[in-house]
Amino acid sequence: MNTETTVHPKLQHYGLTTANLDATIEWYRKVLGMTVNHRASLPPMAQGRAPFSAFAFVGNDEVHHRIVFFETPGAEVDPDKRRHFRVQHVAFEYQTLDDLLGTYVRLKGLGILPVMAVEEGLQTAIYYNDPDQNSVELNVNSYGNEWTATEHMRNAPPIAAGPRRTQIDPDKMIAARKAGASPWDLHERAAAGQLAPDKPYDPRSLT
User: Fold this and answer.
1) Architecture of the domain spanning 14-71
2) Residue 179: DSSP 8-state
3) In sequence order, which ranges of the chain are alpha helices (DSSP H)?
């Protein structure tokens, strides 16, 4: 039994509270392909004692669950949540830029629009807010491997030296991709500000 060396476990799942379990499950099903693997409501005798009334375990891969939703009747979105302690965002990674951009098109067709899209040097990221205004990041590694992306992060200039992220218009990226631009071409063009949105995103919309 190792009692001296730090073990590095992988992040397995996280939990979220919601006032509307059905709507939350449906949003994550549409956006991330989450499937309910177990769902239950508390028995009447426990309703008043527990901080939640129902829960659902959902996942979108081989792991039994990646998120647990806890339904808390009467819970409300905190209008001042940016100033309070919280989980700032949770991210999900795609294998290719085409997968990320294709997801953007699919969600746009469902009326689910991003609140921010950026080129961040080591990755391209598109941010959404779920029904309870939790920030969900969808991204793709610009380098295609974690080691190079980590080196990029370690050698990036301080934030004070200039912005590390450039806003992008996913529709412009898609048009350029269809015109023959490679993922790396899009990465460089986005970083240079050539694929910026005509109307900049409001950073305050990213909760």
Assistant:
1) Roll (3.10)
2) T
3) 21-32, 44-47, 97-109, 146-155, 170-178, 183-191
**What residue ranges of the chain are covered by domains with CATH 3.10.180.10?**
14-71
The reply to whether CATH 3.30.720.110 applies to domain 88-205 is yes
| pLDDT at 163 > cutoff 70 | no
175-206 pLDDT, tens digit each: 999 999 999 999 999 999 999 999 999 988 77
Q: What is the mean pLDDT of residues 17-28?
A: 96
Q: Give one word for 144, left, alpha or beta, with left for phi > 0 and alpha for psi -120 to 50.
A: left
Start-end of CATH 3.30.720.110 domains in the chain:
88-205
Contact residues for 100 (Cβ-Cβ < 8 A; gap 6+): 94, 124, 126, 138, 139, 140
* Contact (CB, 8 A) for 67 and 82: no
**DSSP for residue 41:** E
